């Protein structure tokens, strides 16, 4: 197979990594792929006579994805005792960081392998989540406010309904969609606002000695308290039976309450988790469509039906959201079936 020709960025990354590790023979291979512009690379560095150490280079081109927010959020989380990858070296002008290698298995990969104890892993995830939620939000931590939340919801209208499915809703349907969005926003904005990772899901959690490490935290905001817990269980890449999700939510609720995290009673918390999940799932369907049509990253859109399945589970619980359920059933599912049928194999 012909190997891709190295770019100037590849050359700069390798040169910087060799200088940062002191290993002039270091080579790098792609460690993971991201939906954004950031990339991660793994290498084995000669430790000068000692055993080789595996390192990760984070490549965050400054003109595309500034790494300073990652570092700023990292300092906030470290202050709360959250387990994160260590930073061995950094160059913000070039956009390179040399990180601790946490290994090659995330929670998601452990689940996919079929040999993971999900109860134990989620309990370890709660350990870190409770530390995150106990943090005091600094004044400069961006709020997950109404404008931000609504802008995310509108990705669904623009990119999934309009661009991907080619739907044009009439005035009544648009009014019903707006009303459903209003009810979702009212709920999540009324929840207690805490430090929110915003992507606290299995692919961003890694088993390490003594517990779990948290990655991909640069998008953290001050937002609804139920957002991160539900993100753990209604995930983009793995689905669980609803009775198990209810059990894990109850376990989190009990542990959080015992730790002094200010939660409502479980029935109200479960409702809040459903509503926070709806905002997230509607947003992600739109985001996946945008990645496909704007950014030429089609693989994510294949998981859109998973999120529609989450809507199917949650919407019937809340009669006030029936108009949104009708839009999904009447327009979205037939259009999605038609779109899927006409795509080339």
Automatic annotation (TrEMBL):
Signal peptide: none annotated. Residues 28-255 form the Aminoglycoside phosphotransferase domain. GO terms for molecular function: ATP binding; transferase activity. It holds the Pfam family APH. The keyword Lipid biosynthesis does not apply. Keywords: ATP-binding, Nucleotide-binding. It comes from the Bacteria. The keyword Transcription does not apply. This is Phosphotransferase. It comes from Lysobacter capsici AZ78.
């Amino acid at each position: 197979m012909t190997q891709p020709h190295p770019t100037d960025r590849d050359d700069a990354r390798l040169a910087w990594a060799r200088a940062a590790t002191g290993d002039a023979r270091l080579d790098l291979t792609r460690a993971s792929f991201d939906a954004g512009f950031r990339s991660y690379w793994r290498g084995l560095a000669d430790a000068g006579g000692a055993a080789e150490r595996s390192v990760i280079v984070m490549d965050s081109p400054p003109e595309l994805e500034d790494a300073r927010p990652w570092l700023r959020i990292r300092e906030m989380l470290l202050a709360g005792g959250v387990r994160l990858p260590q930073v061995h070296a950094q160059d913000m002008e070039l956009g390179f960081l040399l990180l601790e290698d946490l290994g090659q298995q995330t929670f998601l990969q452990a689940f996919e392998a079929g040999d993971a104890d999900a109860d134990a892993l989620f309990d370890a995830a709660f350990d870190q989540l409770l530390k995150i939620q106990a943090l005091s939000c600094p004044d400069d931590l961006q709020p997950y406010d109404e404008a931000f939340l609504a802008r995310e919801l509108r990705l669904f209208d623009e990119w999934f309904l309009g661009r991907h499915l080619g739907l044009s809703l009439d005035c009544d349907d648009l009014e019903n969609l707006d009303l459903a969005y209003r009810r979702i926003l009212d709920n999540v904005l009324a929840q207690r606002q805490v430090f929110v990772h915003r992507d606290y899901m299995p692919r961003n959690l890694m088993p390490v000695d003594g517990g779990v490490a948290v990655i991909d935290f640069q998008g953290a905001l001050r937002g609804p308290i139920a957002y991160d817990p539900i993100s753990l269980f209604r995930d983009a890449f793995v689905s669980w039976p609803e009775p198990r999700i209810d059990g894990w939510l109850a376990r989190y609720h009990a542990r959080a309450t015992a730790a002094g995290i200010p939660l409502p009673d479980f029935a109200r918390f479960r409702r809040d988790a459903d509503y926070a999940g709806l905002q997230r799932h509607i947003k992600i369907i739109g985001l996946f469509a945008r990645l496909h049509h704007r950014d030429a990253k089609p693989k994510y859109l294949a998981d859109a039906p998973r999120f529609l399945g989450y809507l199917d589970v949650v919407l019937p619980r809340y009669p006030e959201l029936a108009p949104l359920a009708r839009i999904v059933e009447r327009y979205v599912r037939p259009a999605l079936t038609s779109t899927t049928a006409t795509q080339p194999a």
